[in-house]
Each structure stands twice: as structure tokens, then as C-alpha cells.
Amino acid sequence: xxxxxxxxxxxxxxxxxxxxxYKVFGRRTDDVLKGLDDGKDRSELQNLGTAAVIDAGFExxxxxxxxxxxxxxxxxxxxIRCLNGLNPITRGSVKIYGTxxxxxDGDDLRELRRARMSMVFQHFALLxxxxxxxxxxxxxxxxxxxxxxxxxxxxxxxDRVGLxxxxxxxPDELSGGMQQRVGLARAFAADNExxxxxxxxxxxxxxxRHEMQELLVELQEELGKTIIFITHDLNExxxxxxxIAVMRAGHIVQVGTPNDILTDPANDYVAKFVQDVxxxxxxxxxxxxxGPRAVVRDTSGSRGALRVMRDLxxxxxxxxSHGRKVxxxxxxxxxxxxxxxxxxxxxxxxxxxxxxxxADQYLSELFELTIHTRLPIAVVGNNDRxxxxxxxxxxxxxxxxxxxxxxxxxxxxxxxxxxxxxxxLNDTSGEEAHS
Length: 435
Hints:
- Helix 8 (206-223) links the parallel strand 7 (194-198) and strand 8.
- With 435 residues, this protein is an alpha/beta fold.
- It is built from 17 helices and 16 strands.
- The chain is elongated, with a radius of gyration of 29 Å.
């Protein structure tokens, strides 16, 4: 009788749970484990065996892309093969939706892989004597899905990855990128809950590789699979990963979101690892935005706007309506003229926002917006609710990875002198003339 659970509880948010996992290659594994327990480095134990994974522990949430990254020899590929039993576990625990992998016999292990996991390899692993369509349908064939149904499913997935016209071709007629699309289609067609991807895109040209990364993220958002993705490429990890585990010499040295890894590295190794990452493609508007201070309500009138400008020493203020909906902005020269003319209606001098973004937009998308205006970029939520602002200097400082915000001031702008603002606020003649 199988020990593999065939159901997936709908409320179970943990797909994979790894605890104190060790993988040692060699004949004297017990001696290696004892040496590690005694605090020895794995390099001191090489004559006894190779400790590829040392005391690894993490959880993967259902529906997330969890990336394991590290340099060659860090143990990441060995680790992923422990998750589906391709590498027998030396010590520790791996649970897949509550089923313990360590100790499963051959039949139960095969059933776990068939029912729970698909794997996408670096070098495609397509069957050379089968057509593209047959390769995509192979997992369904193993699961004894009727031929008509599995071919229909395979064709759907070939269409999804843009290879419909290649269905009857042989794998060697396809380019590397196309073959990897077949591998991805095969993995998704099997409809398993967990995808293990071991350096799946590393053999591809950079342009094709980025296209595959975008396709993976798009499919993940649509289907909500749980994906464990192995890579040595930091930019790739930052692009596809919801969370990242960084490995070094068999150890997991940090687990966190891309933002955590980039902005709060656990040690010097991680800091050095991420120093060349393209921060603009990792950090979002939410990461650098500030609370909006230069804001007035649309009912405040021109005199209220002028007072905020004077107090905050800013030439512009955002104007919000009910529900903090940002409706535009006003600038000091217009406000000053309105106050002197006794015009209290701020809507008559309201200007549309030159730019607004959502909180999850990457900084790389914000640069062009700052070229033609020095007005901070408004960050909005549902119904244009004002969440924060991104001053130009905060954007530049974030990309420079410095605390420059604390030392730099806003670039000089044309602004009405504060003495003029004070004099205008204290002058009521204009209002009396219009009362």
C-alpha cells in the first residue's frame, strides 16, 4: 500500500518542508557527519567523504517560486535532487505536503514523483525518438491518461508556449530555446503541484533566457504552481524568485525576499554576491517611496496650499479629494496669483500629474518619468489613492546603494522666496476686495 498522500489539503500553505538536511557522498558518511557535528569544516573531512549539503532547513509556501542560488559547488543541485529522492538523504527530513521523503521505498518514491512533482533539467532531457507532441504528453502517458485526452492537453500547452506548428517535429529539429519550451510545456502538462527546475535556462542565449524567465513568471501567476528554481545567476534569481535561499559550501546562509537579500545581506559573502545586481530591476516604488507631506485637500483653497508650501519650503503640492484620491498638483506661482486675486477655488489652477505609478512597479520603469519634471512621482493604489511619493533624489540614492538621502538636499528649483509667501499670507487686502 502506498504511503504517499494523494490529496492536497486546500488549507495547507506549506508545500515543502526541509529540516536539518544533510547529503554526504562517500563510504564513510557517519564519520563525516560526526566531524560536522563536532564543528569541523567540510574541507577538513574531504578524505572521508564529500559533504554537499549541510544542515539545510527552509519551507516553501504553496504557490511561490522559491529560488536556491549559489556558485558552482555550493550544493544547490544536490539539494534539489534530495527533494524528490534522486539523491538519497543522508540525514534529516524532507516533507512534501506532509509526506516524508526520507525512507520511502522505490514504489512510493516513484508515486511521489508521478503524483506530486515534475522536473525541468538544464539540458532539456527530451526523448529524441518521440515527436514534440509526444514529449509533452509523456508524463500523462506514464499516468495512463487516455491517448486522445493527453494529446489534447499536450496541444494546448504547445500552443501556450508558442510551438503549435512544431508538434510533429523531432526534438533535434528545434533550437535550444524551443527545446526548453517543450520541457516547460511537458512539466506543466503533467499538472503536478510542484515543479523542480535545475538550472533550467542556463544553457540558453541571454535574449532567449530572458524570454523564458518572463514566460515562467507569467505561467506561474496564471496557474499558481509551487516552483523550486536552481540558478547561479543572481539577476535571474532576483527576477523570478518570490524568496531566495543563498547557498555557500553546502550551507544555506540566508533566506529572504529579493529585497531582503539585496538591502539587508546576512554577511559579507552575500553582500559581495549582490553588489553587482541591477537594483533597478529588483527594488520597487514601494521600497523607496516616502510619506506624502506636501499635500492639500481640494477644499483647502489657494491660501491653504500657499501655507503648506511656505511651511515645507516646496514649490509644489499634491491635491487630493475624498478618499485621498490624487487629482493633480498646484505650483507656487499659480497659487500666489490666485491668493492675490482673491481666488479661493484651487481647481482653477489645478494641473494634471505628469506621472503616477503603482507600488509594485520597478525602479527601472521610473527613470523616464523623472526626465521632464522635478515633481516627485506619485505612488497610487486603488482608485488613485495617494500612498506615497518618490522624490527624484530618493530614486537616485536608492540605486547608488547609499544613505545619500540623509545628506543630499532637493536640487534647487525656481521657487517664490519665502518672504513673498509670508507677505502674501499676511496680506488680506485681496480677500477684502473680493468679499
